[in-house]
Amino acid sequence: MNKIKLNNGLSLPQLGFGTYKITDEEILDKLLPKAVDLGYELLDTASYYNNERAIGDCICRHTLFGKLKVCTKIWPKDYGRDQTLYSIEKSMKNLRLDKLEGLFLHWPSEDFEESWKALEEVYEEGLCNFIAVSNFHKQHLEKLFVHANIKPAIDQLETHPLLQQKDMKEYLSQHNIQLEAWSPLARSVEKLTDTAVIEEIASKYHKFPQQIVIRWHIEEGNILIPKTSKLERLEENKEVFDFSLSREDHNKIAKLDSGIRVSQDPEDENWLKEIREK
């Protein structure tokens, strides 16, 4: 598994797996041990996903302590220093862990500055290995930099061939912040094959379309956390280290960048206000 070095010196696996909307404990009970057997380490969840307790129970039941690098996120409803600290305590209790790999602010909603200070406290106490943000654009990060003593190690952004985040990636690189792609397959790989470009490249390498997209992320230098609840897909997603895309392939994929989102826009102020109540 490739490793990516973060701005605090920590190395993180480039390919992990996401657990968004996976709340069925029976599925997690099969998924997590299989992931460990396949060599996965990085696991992404969030308090908003409502599966931290099920993940923690599974980690405990299969004695996976120390085998998974678990990251979670604080939802904006829990922003503000004290509430953020309580949210972190609750997440750690649910996950059955006394130390997390990473802690993220989930969206750049109101009071994120105070919550970032809480993350800094927890990081300084040694309760997590890095602190990070999710869905923060340039203006959000610049507002954060005014108040922060520690820069985020990662900015987790919706990133896929239809939304390649080139400007943000360049900006993050200037500040030594790593981009991590969520929804790296645009939620449904079928959205990426409408133009037949991905399928054409997949046929060339005798690979599945999602493997081409994952390989593209790897070669772009992104950390990525594709979500799956299927054991066979978990295995297929990892079979991307035995080939390389050509420059021609990259040029074709670059032309798919159309700014199309499959989720919410961090520029949507109404959305950012709305999620404070969720």
* Helix residue percentage: 40-55%
| Succession of helices and strands | EEEHEHEHEHEHEHEHHHEHHH
Distance between the termini: 37 Å
**Rg over alpha carbons:** 18 Å
Helix tally equals: 12
**Helix/sheet category:** alpha/beta
Order of adjacent strands in the largest pleated sheet: 3-4-5-6-7-8-9-10
What fraction strand? 15-25%
Shape: globular
By DSSP, the count of extended strands is 10
Poorly predicted segments: none
Mean of all residue-level pLDDT scores:
95
Major sheet size, sense and barrel closure: 8 strands, parallel
Keywords:
278 residues, alpha/beta, 8-stranded parallel sheet, 10 strands
What does this molecule look like?
This protein is an alpha/beta fold and 278 residues long. The protein is built from 12 helices and 10 strands. Strands 3-4-5-6-7-8-9-10 form an 8-stranded parallel beta sheet. Strands 1-2 form a two-stranded antiparallel sheet. The termini are far apart.
Please give a quick description of this structure:
This protein has helices spanning 25-38, 52-61, 81-95, 112-124, 138-147, 166-174, 189-192, 197-205, 209-220, 231-238, 247-254, 269-274; strands at 3-5, 11-13, 17-18, 42-44, 69-74, 100-105, 128-134, 154-158, 178-182, 223-224.
